[in-house]
Amino acid sequence: MAETQANDVLVSFRGVQKSYDGETLIVKDLNLDIRKGEFLTLLGPSGSGKTTSLMMLAGFETPTSGEIQLAGRSINNVPPHKRDIGMVFQNYALFPHMTVAENLAFPLSVRGMSKTDVAERVKRALSMVQLDAFGGRYPAQLSGGQQQRVALARALVFEPQLVLMDEPLGALDKQLREHMQMEIKHIHQRLGVTVVYVTHDQGEALTMSDRVAVFHQGEIQQIAPPHELYEHPRNSFVANFIGENNRIAGQLHSHDGERCVVTLARGEKVEALAVNVGQPGDAVSLSIRPERVRLNGHSESCVNRFSGRVAEFIYLGDHVRIRLEVCGRTDFFVKQPIAELDPALGVGDVVPLGWAVEHVRALDPLSAA
Ligand SMILES: Nc1ncnc2c1ncn2[C@@H]1O[C@H](COP(=O)(O)OP(=O)(O)O)[C@@H](O)[C@H]1O
Ligand SMILES: [Mg+2]
């Protein structure tokens, strides 16, 4: 990865660790540079340490060791309200006894801004989230989505250099969530503010982010732009957490530079990209995306060719997922756009299939966790 210019970095975690009980490290050794203006997402399963990391950045938790810098200056001893950071959480936490406009004015008044300036800023913030006519309402008079837009406006109204969002859309239904994802992304693009966003939803992370840091058990597994994360997962955890994935267990047979040969349980050989493998004889997990598997005649040009027995079709409107029995597995999935589906294909049929070497990755065997 290219060396990040020091003056492009807004936030820097340096060797940050966090333990709540003095024994277990919830955040193990966090080293992370967040660039000015970037939309960075912390993605990981529940309990992986995302919120803890965000809370340390916000100043509500103290690192057990290590340092956090904001704009080149250590903030370990700077209280939350002096960090110039806006925040949005899942439960909107608007003041219920204040109108929308009063909620938005609050962070400005506490900063000692004049009444005229406050009024002007509030007006602009309302317009930014398309709630111009709602200034006089109370939070209880708004829908969940509208309340979340107010929370967003309130986090941005004092024009902080950094905004933190922790699962801000978690309480919204799917359609509204997807709408708000785009809205937040567009606001980010317009304002150029730096955003650190937390979610356990990989689709949300891929849609919104410039870069995604994948968390697991208090450690970053990989940090990369969405496309790279999806196409070039560095280990089994990332490959399985992001997107769908066929996994086949095998043993490393030989390894030559970027490529390797893996032997499957019944002796079949697969030629794969050697991404995260040990020595010949070691266990490996092969990872193949369902959309990369080619069926019938399309498989003829593939280096890795097998056959599969069709077990089930699952229709999803625009595409179909076909479950097959392949190489001893009964849960091997192939994804096909409806337009490419062979209408003659039926359950029980045995079809040739295959995948290219560049679409199968040999990774560490996934632990049971
Ligand atoms: N205030 C706290 N005191 C003790 N343990 C905590 C506290 N906050 C979080 N934890 C623990 O730290 C781990 C990581 O939690 P958290 O950072 O909230 O993860 P995430 O946001 O990824 O779900 C969990 O096991 C959780 O129980
Ligand atoms: Mg959390």
TrEMBL record:
The keyword Methyltransferase does not apply. SUPFAM superfamilies: MOP-like, P-loop containing nucleoside triphosphate hydrolases. GO terms for cellular component: ATP-binding cassette (ABC) transporter complex. It catalyses: ATP + H2O + polyamine-[polyamine-binding protein]Side 1 = ADP + phosphate + polyamineSide 2 + [polyamine-binding protein]Side 1. Pfam families: ABC_tran, TOBE_2. One of its GO terms (molecular function) is ATP binding. Its EC number is 7.6.2.11. Keywords: ATP-binding, Cell membrane, Membrane, Nucleotide-binding, Translocase, Transport. It is an enzyme of class 7 (translocase). The keyword Cell membrane applies. Residues 11-242 form the ABC transporter domain. Part of the ABC transporter complex PotABCD involved in spermidine/putrescine import. Responsible for energy coupling to the transport system. Belongs to the ABC transporter superfamily. Spermidine/putrescine importer (TC 3.A.1.11.1) family. The complex is composed of two ATP-binding proteins (PotA), two transmembrane proteins (PotB and PotC) and a solute-binding protein (PotD). This is Spermidine/putrescine import ATP-binding protein PotA. It comes from Pseudomonas delhiensis.
